[in-house]
Amino acid sequence: MDPHLITEVEALMPERPQRELRQYELSGPSPLVADTRVDVRVGRRGAGDLGSFPNNVKPFALTAVVHAYPHEPGQNRPGRVRTPLSDDEAEAWARVAFGEKLSDYAYQLDVQIPDRLRSQIPPHQKWFVVLVDNHDEPMLAPDNFRWGLIFYTRSEPRKLHAVNDSVREHLASCGPYIDTSTFRDARTDPDGGWTIDVVGDTESLTPVARDAVESARRIFRRRGAVTTDFQTVRLVVEETSLQIHFRWKRNPNTFSTTVRIPQFDSDFTSPPGHNPSAWMSTAAQELSEEFHTGYMVRATRTVVDGIVHLGKADRGGGTEYHLRDDIKDPLRLHLQRGGECVAHAVSSLQADEIAVLYQFDARPDIPTPELRRLAWVALSKAVDTGARYIVTHLDHPVLEDLGFAPDGRGRFVYDVVPTT
Hints:
Elements lengths: L2 H10 L11 E6 L6 E11 L13 E11 L16 H12 L1 H4 L3 E2 L17 E7 L5 E2 L1 E2 L15 E2 L5 H10 L2 E2 L18 E4 L6 H14 L9 E9 L2 E8 L5 E7 L15 H17 L2 H4 E6 L2 E7 L7 E5 L6 E6 L2 E12 L2 E9 L5 H16 L5 E4 L4 H6 L2 E2 L5 E4 L5
Parallel strand pairs: 7-9, 10-11, 13-15, 19-20
Antiparallel strand pairs: 1-2, 2-3, 3-5, 4-5, 4-8, 5-6, 11-12, 12-13, 14-15, 16-17, 17-18, 18-19, 20-22, 21-22
Helix pairs in contact: 1-2, 5-6
């Protein structure tokens, strides 16, 4: 990388990069290609599901997307036409966008846009990626990072040359990736996907059903396939249904949700579920929408052999009451009516596996179903922090109805893990 090219790019920019923003853009004339302008768009996205990271790291991926296009007088934004740009010049623009410190840790993707999408996606894109933590400190990528979920690529990226001596020495001795073997989640395989088993009657599956189950194994073992908090444990084949057993956040229970297994080609009537893989991808997308909109607290529950099976969700709606989290404390809930707080539920994690519900009160005119909803969401949030038991000194019929039982010492205890 010619440092003079970086200097030329910096000199042609009308203003400095606004790196303090989550998203920003650079634009200016190309120093190498006549009558050509270059756009650089820098974005930020969570990267925790894209590879294995230490538990105390919350990673983000910063991307710099470099486009070049013919410059026309009076044109502020590029049209559909793009101009090829050399890797060297694209890298110079990306380095200016990231800054020297972050650029030492950056990679360039080998973009491979599928043929079926070439008419929809502008060509000649150059993608650069650098990983940072929640303090914006850069880091090298883990050795199982899934680059293809950043943009279209199937190849290993090119690590940019480092300027800093210590970074350069580290790259020379250890390579361009972090070895994840010492901190990778024990529930995952070396590639970072969940370690899962497929059990049940797999021998009698039709060819289409067998392909669908294999597609489900591939899709649901991927971290983030449903949500970040959804951790697949196993797949259970039961005739024409597939049970997906999973853990949720730090909840000590194992849960199950069910999707239908297609049996024959005639089951594929139209897109998006037009083949076994697309069928299961669609199922994962539908589950993602459900779990992102509160399915865990809205679904009915049935316990079978220690597995909590989730059923039809209560859609609610039509009520004048609304639950609100406290901005600073997610375990502090408020029930509002007309913008006014009319009930509260407050809990906290006091010790390993024990949470305390120390406030549950409401105005006397609040309907019991709304109080039950408040209490249930409060319990669910406490359980998701890892609590095995929830204790309280509060004697309330709603809490008793949810399963709190006296312990003989003036307290009431809710056992998170069902016994039936």
